[in-house]
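QA checklist item 7 of 12: single-chain prediction sanity check.
[x] sequence parsed
[x] length recorded as 143
[x] structure emitted
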Amino acid sequence: MKATVISVLTVLAGFQLAAALPSTSKGASDLAARAQLGSKLCVSTNLSAGCETISNASGMMPGQCIALDSQLFDNVSSIAPLAGSWCTYFKAQGCQDTTSNGCGKFDANSPINDLTTVSPTNPSTKCEGNMDKKIRSFLCNYV
């Protein structure tokens, strides 16, 4: 009888431990489903043709500078940061703003269907021009 009581207590203790632990596989897939990082970049307006999506699914890490390939380099006309991403697009290679007035980059967290309609981002000064066919590198972080 004593052995039976101990085994019932052991089973109950194991049940309490199992009930207290979250399912690691469910949590991991939920996180992956909502934690997108990256951007779609297209050589045409309206995200319609010549597009590439660079994302954490292909190994991109937060804050990692992505140099554009020959198809996209100075050819991008529309962009779409992935849901949950905040991206900065640069006119220079190496994710650096090399301009003297801080107007060598553009920040976005939603699609821009036509880069002729947006000016570089600098909260301290008004930037002239647009970002159409001027992007050479970019980086993204989670929103």
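[x] summary fact logged: The longest strand covers residues 85-90.
[ ] second reviewer sign-off
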